[in-house]
Amino acid sequence: MEEKAKVYAISEKGLLQTKELYQYILDTSVFSRELQPLKELREVCAIHPRAWMSTAPDAGQFMAILLQLLNAKRTIEIGVFTGYSLLLTALNIPEDGKIVAIDVDRAAYEMGLPVIKKAGVEHKIDFIESEALQALDEIVQNPDAEGSFDFAFVDADKVNFWNYHERLMKLVKVGGVAIYDNTLWRGTVAMPEDAVRQKLKEGRKLTIEFNNLLAKDARVQICHASIGDGMTICRRIS
After folding, report:
1. Tell me: the pLDDT tens digits for 43-64?
2. CA distance 145 to 136
3. pTM exceeds 0.85
């Protein structure tokens, strides 16, 4: 019962018609398969005042499959928060795999760090405490970094999504994948502007602009999936 109570808060990120339907998916297909370290980190994150920012567990399950299908070894994550998606990635890449993880909030990362250490995957993570654009620009300047990443996950400030995308198109290899989170912005992208709550309007505007740019980007093959708060999967093709 306690597990279900926590899930209803998560379900606000989903776009399914009912919370009961989302709960069914979680109970039937997600929680029964969720690795113990991920469950522990999700429970740690639940006490954070911005717990809603964490990656939805069904979205994480989807990412895990992609990571394994890609045989991803070197990845980059922009926006870490308490580290659910980071831990998930670390658990699904090889023992000698590496993740460059960028976030300005070390305190949030350290909240989940004990679980990451307990899972035995901290050695795979290179955490960079920095504004993401600054860190990405430094990485891009290294000629060896071009096309060196198999996978990227972005769950950060929407105002810079396109800036992140431009840099990732240099860093992610052809055939590699970049995923952008929250690209349906609680469903507001399909609502009239006057029907959207004020606090969501700016994010809605930025998300619509980003989605339109991605739709026209010939460098990527895209899939806009209604998982969690919307995820856009971009496979670099040129």
Report:
1. 999 999 999 899 999 999 999 9
2. 10
3. yes
